[in-house]
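Let's study today's protein:

:::
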Amino acid sequence: MLADSMRLKILLPYRVFAIKERVLNIVAETELGSYGFLPNRLDCIAPLVPGILMYKTHDEGETFVAVDQGILVKTGPEVVVSVRHAIGGVDLGQLESAVKQQFLDLDERERSVRSTMAKLESSFIRRYMELKHE
């Protein structure tokens, strides 16, 4: 690996999505906006939100990957991105719509399921307490 480049790993819960060598820079979306990462940047951790991850390599040029929420960890020349879902290999317009349709809708559905489960749990506890006092 060159001194002016990084090694990028994109990990999913069930497999390795990509390993890229000779990465010149990375741009990722966080809760506070887009951040760029260069080879000589200090080590850091960044929470990622659903969006587009861009990286540029010596060999392939700019590449775009749609990623779900996760975490980016940079230690020295190694950058590890761990996300729930990732989509690559299509043009930028399709990736943006994939983020909106799949990742953001999935988060909304998960919130709805959590809300429903919380209501069921509170109803169960309330009924249990009523039966206990009878």
Remarks:
- Strands lie at 6-11, 16-30, 33-37, 44-48, 51-57, 61-67, 70-75, 78-83, 86-87.
- The chain is about 30% helix and 45% strand.
